[in-house]
Amino acid sequence: MRINFPLNPRAVLTAGALMRAAVVAAVLASIGPAFADVTLKDVTGREVHLDAPAHRLLIDDGRYLIALALINPDPVSVLAAWPHDINRIGKATYAAYEKKFPAIDKLARVASSAGSLSVEQVIAARPDLAVFSLGSQPTEEQRSRIEAAGIPVVVIDFFTHPLANLEPSLRLLAAATGREAQAEAFLAFRRARLDAVKAKLADLKPDERPRVFLEPHAAMTSDCCNSPGKGNVGDIIEADGGTNIGAAVIPRAFGKLNLEYVISQDPQVYIATGGSHMEGTAGLLIGPEYTADKARETLARVVSRPGFSGLAAVRDHRVHGLSHQMLNSPLDIFTVEILAKWIHPERFKDLDVDETVREVNERFLAVPVEGPNWVDLD
């Protein structure tokens, strides 16, 4: 026998409300992390809080686009403005990004870290977050004006101390845009390769460190000689078991050496950097815009300058060329590995840098790296 109980409207309402609440809770639980408070700690130690992941970043260095491309399949989609500093990533690389992400041409333009910051430009771009370089961060007054407009400010670094600051910088970009898992995967990959290089040098003695002269923007001009000092790629030279001849006399990350000093140091390894930005300077032309033969031809011209032919590096055929776009880059592991091979060729004879590039291209980068980005003269 079936018994029909009288329907209680209040009970029905309560059950319906509970069901709706459960549905809302389930939806919020599924998307909650996207709306959670985001805490960022930049390389200066300053903490910044976002109500939600940023969807409109302002960056003052085109190389940060490459960093975003390591963790986001569409790095342009999270940008509001960038400096359009094509030389920092290379003409061919920019063309590849432009082809895949045509929206890059519609982004607002702001001053690069090599220029003068315009607070008005920053505010006009209306970013969710403004990301500046350590060496050119806003003054306190500029920061206050930007933040007063409701725009949080953070500072990252791939230039001054790349080996120390790349991890926290990439983690910040990842946390800011909700791509933490992707960043951790790349950083684990990078760390494993850094550890492998370190292990090969564990028993290196002080007198086994060759003297290294790395000359950025090497060209047939009287303006000799650019060099890293304490920091910048000098950190990588030291980590790779070399002695950076610029560190003893340049207290900053980057500076100049005179030719007489270079000759007196008689470097055992010489590395020139260049790229398409060196067109018209009789400098090193290297990168995906050129063939390896062209890179070697221009490298030979660079070391034909007066004073260079007598250097130990030239006499012993330890002359190399590197794309400048590989410096100050979130892809620093490529530079670490190729410099390790050049500085200690016997210890790293089995290291396959091209394989590292292949894996990064396949597993991480939204736009693959193309070469040649390094050559040996001989």
Tell me the major beta sheet. 5 strands, parallel
Number of contiguous helices? 13
The termini sit apart by: 99 Å
DSSP E strands, number: 14
Q: What are the secondary-structure elements, in order, as H or E?
A: HEEEHEHEHEHEHHEEHEEHEHHEHHE
Mean pLDDT: 91
What are the SSEs and their pairings?
Blueprint (H helix, E strand, L loop, with lengths): L8 H27 L2 E4 L5 E4 L6 E3 L3 H9 L7 E4 L8 H10 L7 E2 L9 H7 L3 E5 L6 H9 L4 E4 L5 H16 L2 H21 L10 E5 L10 E3 L4 H7 L3 E2 L9 E3 L2 H7 L3 E6 L17 H11 L9 H4 L3 E5 L8 H12 L9 H11 L10 E3 L2
Parallel strand pairs: 3-4, 3-6, 4-5, 6-7, 8-10, 8-12, 12-13
Antiparallel strand pairs: 1-2, 9-11, 13-14
Helix pairs in contact: 6-7, 7-12
Question: Keywords for this structure?
Answer:
five-stranded parallel beta sheet; alpha/beta; globular; five-stranded mixed beta sheet; disordered N terminus; 40% helix; 378 residues
Description:
- The structure is a single chain.
- With 378 residues, this protein is an alpha/beta fold.
- Helix content is 40%, strand content 14%.
- It has helices spanning 9-35, 63-71, 91-100, 119-125, 140-148, 162-177, 180-200, 233-239, 259-265, 292-302, 312-315, 332-343, 353-363; strands at 38-41, 47-50, 57-59, 79-82, 108-109, 129-133, 153-156, 211-215, 226-228, 243-244, 254-256, 269-274, 319-323, 374-376.
- The strands form four sheets. The protein has a five-stranded parallel sheet with strand order 5-4-3-6-7, sandwiched between helices. A five-stranded mixed sheet has the order 10-8-12-13-14, sandwiched between helices. A two-stranded antiparallel ribbon has the order 1-2.
- Helix 6 runs antiparallel to helix 7 (180-200) and helix 7 runs parallel beside helix 12.
- The longest helix is centred in the first third of the chain and has 27 residues, at 9-35.
- The protein is globular.
